[in-house]
Amino acid sequence: MGIVAGLDSSSESTRIVVCDTDTGAVLRHGYAPHPMTGSDVDPQAWLLSLGEAAEGGLLEGVEAIGVSAQQHGLLALDAGGVTVRPAMIGNDRRAQAAAADLIDALGGRGAWAQAVGAVPQPGLAVAKLRWLARSEPESARRVAELLQPHDWLVWQLLGRPARRTTDRGAASGTGYWSAATGQYRTDLVELALGHPVRLPEVIGPAEPAGHTPEGLLISAGTGETMAAAFGLGVGIGDAVVSLGASGSVFAVHHEALADPGATITGYADATGMHLPVVHTLNAVRVLRGTAEMLGCDLEELSALALKSTPGASGLVFLPYLEGERTPHLPHTAGTLSGLRRESMKPEHLARAAFEGMLCGLADALDVLRGRGVEVRRIFLLGPSADLPAVRAIAPALLGARVVVPQPAEYAALGAARQAAWALGVSRGTLSPQAPPVWPAAASQVFEPGDELPVGQAVRQQYAAVRDQTHPGAFDHGPAAV
User: Which residues lie below 8 Å from residue 308, measured CB to CB, with a gap of 6+?
Assistant: First the structure.
């Protein structure tokens, strides 16, 4: 038996869980908020938040720590290891033009997908680098080294050693490391920034980043998405559908997926496997917009939707309110089709909103299925997963068993599990190929059952309107349910 800690430094807060290495049971936990300061953040605030979250002897007896941190962050350091400017975090809209420039510079979306498995977006570090070179050239010229938030926190915890490390998961979200080859594309860093820089060493999932002067093991760490998947226990045959304002679908897979159409982003996971991701721009924002139109809240919208029937009396809502990434329709708008006197009722519009959102996510899921990704079970995440209409409609439309985990600090739990793995390997009690087995997340399970044919009919109704309205949008169309 031992005790480990998982630290998750998100965009909003630091959360720490202290766990038993054998059972994964949470023994203690801590929390502290981060100051809300926009897209530019002093990373010292993360350390202050960490210290506050760990007050009261929270880490007493801990033998190893794993670190999860927000993705889409960039820390540019000078030759002395000092940041040349505040950390750039989040989906930084300032970098939109820079991302477009980089896409053109390499020859298009397909060229980037082939090179690193990801097309530049404003959130990726490579796009932030191009923005920095164009907008703050004096700072850009001083950059000698690049880290991401989790890399920087691990380095600080270790006392700022000469060695800098990262892991496959975080590296795969930079736009200049390929999960398929396991190599950096330093030419892409130079393309973005204009000169070469030092990049952290990419270490294995169970390999320690180092030990503190007190002998505390610090594991490799990873990005939040990868840590949450590890904390949930996502494995082969599982997919995760995340319901935020926008949506994402990802799954654990045994190999990187080359995608000439650039619909799939090829991340790596926290275990040595791969984590192909498909994004949608529209998820819960579709429900919120519909609720505002009908003058109700989301709970009332859910109740309305359940008064309708599958197919919403022929009403079909293509939910492309902000344009769309899957399919690639950046300049389109949403479409409401099938308006007839009998369908023009609040409950049918509510039902069409839920069905449209879920059909859009099912399209994203089918992109993965069409590339050979096995999906037997779907984890549904986000506060809106608790809505009765989502739970009632999702299994049949997504075409698989749906699992809704109880709320928990899954990213911090994944970081703790990684720490336990590295600690076990260092002691010879665990294999580098087999992480510790911790109990599955407590959850509710919803089966498609007899509703599966009905769900397929709704999908077909949706697909007919989608393909008529946007012919050719899925040139490599999603697989059939």
Answer: 345, 347, 348, 350, 351
Residue 422 lies in a domain: no
Compute the mean pLDDT over every residue in the chain, rounded to the nearest whole number.
95
CA dihedral 170→172→173→178, nearest 10 degrees, is 150
Convert the pLDDT of each residue in 110-147 to its tens digit: 999 999 999 999 999 999 999 999 999 999 999 999 99
161 domain residue, yes or no: yes
Nearest partner of 405 among 386, 428, 424, 433, judged by Cα: 386
Q: Any idea what the Cα angle at residue 244 is, between residues 238 and 246, rounded to 5°?
A: 95
Q: Look up the CATH number of the domain holding residue 78.
A: 3.30.420.40
Q: How far apart are CA 402 and CA 243, in angstroms?
A: 13
d(CA 333, CA 324) in angstroms, rounded, equals: 8
Residue with tokens 């210290």: 51
In which domain, by residue range, is 67 found? 3-227
53 is a domain residue: yes
Global confidence as pTM: 0.93
Write out the two tokens for 300.
């009332």
Domain count for the chain, please give it: 1
56 falls within a domain: yes
- For CA atoms 354, 355, 358, 363, give the dihedral sign: negative
What residues form DSSP beta bridges with 69?
9, 223
Judge whether 168 and 179 are in contact, CB under 8 Å: yes
